[in-house]
Amino acid sequence: MQSMTFGPTYQEMLHPELLPAELRRRAEAARANELDPANLFNITWEAPDNSVRHVVLPRELTGVDANIVVLVGRHFPSGSHKVGPAYSTLMEGELAGEIHPGQNTIIGPSTGNFGIGSAYIAHLMGYPCVVIMPEQMSAERYERIRKYGANLDLTPGSESDVILVLERTEHYKKDPHNKILAQFELLPNYRFHRFVTGRSALRAASLHGDGRVAAFVAAPGSAGTLAAADEIKAVFPSAATVALEPHECSTLYNNGRGTHRIEGIGDKMVTLIHNVLNTDYVMLIHDDDCVVALELIEHQQAILERTLHMLPGALAYLRGVFGVSGTCNILGSIRTAHFLGLGPDDNIVTIATDGFDRYPSVLADLARRRGPFNAGNIPEHFEQTYRGGSTEDILDVRSPAQKQRLFEYKQQVWTRFGYSLEYLRSMTHQSFWEAEYEKIWDIDAALLRARRVSLASV
Q1: Measured distance CA(294)–CA(175) in Å, rounded
Q2: d(CA 377, CA 103)
Q3: By the 8 A CB rule, do 26 and 38 touch?
Q4: Does residue 215 contact residue 340 with C-beta atoms inside 8 Å?
Q5: CATH of domain 83-182
Q6: CA distance 131 to 108
Q7: Widest distance between CA atoms in the chain
Q8: Which CATH class is domain 54-77+193-401?
Q9: Are β-strands 105-109 and 67-72 bridged in parallel, bridged antiparallel, or unpaired?
């Protein structure tokens, strides 16, 4: 049996400066070679100078007074923050003695970035991997997964057909050598985002406005990222949590279902790890608005700057920062600022899950469907996307009746996959989520012990 490759603790992912100096030096050097296992220690929102990687959007672009603070995920190893939950799930499985290199194959059910992260982490930690995902995702996603040596098992449909991915996963569970990194249902995803993303969001916001978080806005796929809201609310209880969905697949909004183009979100379910207790509002965003918004910010900056009366090059720092779900989060944040009436001291925090590198084919498809963009139609496209939206697309889900609707939808989905009503009902109490969160400290202690034993045997 191969020896295990141990990576960072949760605390070290939040604060890599806690790493031993030599280990951090090795991790920094490993950035030059993506497949160096020392990149495990680069799973963090932090830059080398210990600042949290983020951008603040210009008010000329957003049209609102509030500060929209965007955590930037493209600098994570493999190009997306989803690598963090993938690593955390595999790491916890190793520590529990459930997963062993040389014995097990990793199965990564996904619609994109988590699958890429699973393939990448499996490669670094010495496991074969199969990624299950829909057949209509972007070509760049498939290319990156194959680059990391994983096999693809494609299911019919698109982003909103993830139930078929879960059904295919059940087939793999029949072989005990297969170990599922089940992002939609395993709590390491929640732990990573609540602790690492949540606390990083608080640090980034502390530098702007009044230092508080007025709202956290994110479009759920697995709903792991929404776990950051639990940590934000622990510090700022009045902070609003806004979950974004495609207008074309309005599951949280009204149990709706449909096909859409925002890869990575809108999966026709309330995921198991979604703590709906801390979701305050659900907002609908049209899928093509997000794709058009990405085209404008990525390829039409010069025209956009003239339209907004900005200096040439004023938007250059945003090039490459966003994917389609990132522009969805931007549009949702702008509409949240209007809806909540936020001012210049208020901070909205949101996420850019990945960067533009995995979306050229999506914009090429946009051009085929809608024709070319030019100086004449840019203002119209900008008004439709960055200034559009309606309060009718926002649903308040704070009432007991709305919580009960979401709980029942979760039960409807997850009893199909073997979860008991007793377990599902335990999730209706915040104490369940607090107990899962508190496991971080024991997990970190166990990982440090395992690392010391591993180093001593070298």
Answers
A1: 42
A2: 57
A3: yes
A4: yes
A5: 3.40.50.1100
A6: 5
A7: 67
A8: alpha beta
A9: unpaired
CB 399 within 8 A of CB 321: no
Same fold, 54-77+193-401 and 83-182: yes
The Cα 375–Cα 380 span in angstroms is: 10
Burial group, residue 223, by CB count within 10 angstroms (0-12, 13-18, 19+): buried
Q: φ, ψ for residue 88 (rounded to 5)?
A: -60, -40
| Residue ranges covered by each domain of the chain | 54-77+193-401, 83-182
The type of residue at 421 is L
Return the pLDDT at 393.
Answer: 94
CA 41 to mean position of chain CA atoms: 19
Q: What H or E segment, with its residue span, contains residue 220?
A: none
CB 386 within 8 A of CB 252: no
**Quick check: 377 pLDDT over 80?**
yes
Chain centroid, CA 399 distance in Å: 26
> 3-state DSSP call for residue 433?
helix
Residue 163's identity, in one-letter code, is: I
pLDDT in tens, 192-234: 999 999 999 999 999 999 999 999 999 988 889 999 999 999 9
Q: How far apart, in whole angstroms, are the C-alpha atoms of residue 253 and residue 415?
A: 21
Go through 308-336 and write b for each residue having 16 or more CB atoms within 10 A of its CB, e for each that does not: beeeeebbeebeebbbbbbbbbbbbbbbb
Tokens of 224: 């792991």
pLDDT at site 266: 45
Dist. CA 399–CA 402, nearest whole Å: 5
Residue 217: name the closest of 297, 318, 328, 323 by CA. Answer: 328
Residues 156 and 167: their CA atoms lie apart, in Å, by 11
User: In degrees, to the nearest 5, what angle opens at C-alpha 215 toward C-alphas 439 and 266?
Assistant: 75
Q: Give 158-178 as a DSSP string.
A: -GGGHHHHHHHHHHHHTSTTE
Phi, psi of 281 (to 5 degrees): -135, 150
Distance CA 350, CA 283 (A): 14
